[in-house]
Structures are given as structure tokens and as C-alpha cells.
């Protein structure tokens, strides 16, 4: 009986010793991205009201007063954007060389909009990104892709702010439905 208790204590001691090491290894691996590729999506698919649950890397769209609540339509979760501009942040666990962005949206009023990143110290210094490809999807949805060289951008605290701007959006009846924002970071 005494030997059995000693064995159990030894097993418990080993477990208590190895558990923090395994946890530390897992945490380091989560933040180091050893593959050199990190994919983050903001896809509106959860039924929660707090968008920060979507991705630990892409922070919620803001200001919320320019966005309608999420809705489920045509088999997709989406959020309508009716006042401009809106913003989102990308928080990277470390620095990367390149970002490929993909936005899936429905623009029934053909409102031209552009994607920009904050390039300076002030909140009014933006650089617009040219669309690489634009693809028509089903039911009026469209996918635009963008590429961004991160080496030439001043990134503070591994955070990069983006803006979606549609300067001709005139009233709340003219909306752009957003279905997905996806960013692939590579070395």
C-alpha cells in the first residue's frame, strides 16, 4: 500500500513538473508562427455580438454606429456597412514581410469603395491599396484581393490599422454587405 502511494505521488510530481513546460512550449509556438504563414479571418459566422471572438488577430470593425447588426441571408452571416469610413486592426504576433488581403462583399448600389492602411503617426495619413483581382461570386457577392509589402510600412507594436472608405455613400439605404475579411501574412 505504501509503495502504491509513493508511485502515485511520483506520477503526480512528474505531471506537475511537465505540465508548465508543455504549456510554455505551446504558448511560444502559438506566438512564433514557425511555418512563416499566418492566416486570420473575420467572417461574421459566430452568433455573438462581440466581434473580438472571431480572431485573435483581426479586431472588430469600428465604429459600430456605422454598421448594422449581423444578419443571416442567402446562407451567409454578414454585416451591412452604411456610413463611411470604417476601420479594423490587424495585430500580428510578430513582424511579417507580406500581407495578402481578401474581402468578400455585396455591393448592390455599386458604391465605389477603397481599402487603405494607416501609414503615418496621425490618424489622417492613409495609403490606399490597389485591387489585385476582383472576382464575381454567386448571388451578387464579389471578392477583391489586395497585396501589401509590410517591409516598407511603419508598424508600431505589431499593429496595423486598415480603413474601408466609400466617399459616395450618401444615406443609410445605400449599404455594402461585408461577408468576410481574410488576411494571410507571410515571411
* Molecular shape: elongated
What helical percentage do the residues reach? Answer: 10-25%
CATH superfamily of the largest domain: Galactose-binding domain-like
Overall SS class? alpha+beta
- Structural Rg: 22 Å
Output the CATH class name of the largest domain. Answer: Mainly Beta
Characterise this structure.
- Strand 8 and strand 9 (141-149) form a beta hairpin.
- The protein has 1 helix and 11 strands; from the N terminus they run αβββββββββββ.
- Mean pLDDT is 83; it is low at 48-53.
- The protein has 2 domains: 1-32; 36-186, Galactose-binding domain-like (Jelly Rolls), CATH 2.60.120.
- It is elongated and about 80 Å long.
- It has 187 residues and is of the alpha+beta class.
- Strands 1, 2, 3, 5, 8, 9 and 11 form a 7-stranded antiparallel sheet that branches. Strands 4-10-6-7 form a 4-stranded antiparallel sheet, with no helix packed on it.
- The protein has one helix spanning 2-32, and strands at 37-42, 71-73, 76-81, 86-91, 98-106, 114-118, 126-129, 131-136, 141-149, 159-165, 176-186.
Give the structure's gist in a few sentences.
The chain is an alpha+beta fold.
List keywords for this structure.
Jelly Rolls, 187 residues, 7-stranded antiparallel sheet, 4-stranded antiparallel sheet, 1 helix, alpha+beta, 17% helix, 2 domains
Strands, helices and their partners?
Layout: H1 2-32, E1 37-42, E2 71-73, E3 76-81, E4 86-91, E5 98-106, E6 114-118, E7 126-129, E8 131-136, E9 141-149, E10 159-165, E11 176-186
Antiparallel strand pairs: 1-11, 2-3, 3-11, 4-10, 5-9, 5-11, 6-7, 6-10, 8-9
